Amino acid sequence: MGRKYKDNYNEFYHSKEWQAVRQQVLQRDNYLCQVCKRAGRITPATTVHHIKAVRVDYSKRLDPNNLETICKACHNTEHNERTKSLHDKQTKLKAEKNSDIFTFKANPEL
Prior knowledge:
The chain has about 110 residues and is mainly alpha-helical. The chain contains five helices and two strands, in the order H-H-H-E-E-H-H.
């Protein structure tokens, strides 16, 4: 999660309204990952996921129909663009460090 995302939504995720709806969704879903359940697996879960992201439609942030309980593995898969990007950057940095080869971006002023 990027710094800007944390700054913009930190207050929401700590609000009493979010905590109450989150608890309601966990109980509704019996603390089971709904993605795994649809695939025929039973997986305990404690993460509540916005189906339509808060940054995409803020008005649905507290709508239980836009929320589902999801395990960490499935949540990472749902947000693979973030994890893939981070993983790619880490892999590139490790490779550069191990080979003592450093790549510099072009000077934007040129």
